[in-house]
Write a structure and sequence with these properties.
With 148 residues, the protein is an alpha/beta fold. It has 2 helices and 6 strands, in the order αβββββαβ. Belongs to the RlpA family.
Length: 148
């Protein structure tokens, strides 16, 4: 009789906890959510100010990878950044390809381009995201400043 008295509370605890024991997953899902930097969250309303229509854009050469930009950050051709002659560092821009209507969001981190015919230098990743397929060189874009 004494043995039953000792095991009865343990059986009750096990009986009430069995739902929680079965609910434990064998494989945990990753907690990190991967977000594509090209796509913009459409739930937020963004304020845009047209800066330049029909601007000529080009992209950085790979030889600049790892070098310091004018803002002091290290340049990486796989980031979504750009160079502009006059806009302050940290300015966020919405760049839209005129022919393709594709959009990319970039941040100004460098000065340039130093050619009078070009208005903005994009990283290679940003440029290829809005350029026509298998296209290189320069394209025509619309620049809009993203206001907070």
């Amino acid at each position: 009789m004494k043995k039953i008295i000792y095991f009865l509370p343990l059986l009750l605890v096990f009986f009430y906890q069995k739902d929680k024991i079965k609910a434990v997953p064998t494989q945990q899902k990753p907690l990190v959510k991967v977000v594509d930097t090209i796509k913009k969250d459409t739930s937020k309303v963004e304020k845009l100010e047209m800066f330049h229509k029909g601007a000529h854009a080009s992209y950085y050469a790979n030889k600049f990878n790892g070098r310091r930009t004018a803002s002091g950050a290290r340049f990486n051709n796989n980031d979504m950044t750009c160079a502009h002659r006059k806009l302050p560092f940290g300015t966020k821009l919405k760049v839209t390809g005129v022919k393709t209507k594709k959009v990319v969001y970039v941040t100004v981190t460098d000065r340039g381009p130093f050619s009078k015919t070009k208005h903005i230098d994009l990283t290679r990743k940003a440029f290829m995201a809005i350029a026509p397929k298998s296209y290189g060189g320069h394209i025509e874009v619309d620049l809009e400043i993203v206001k907070k």
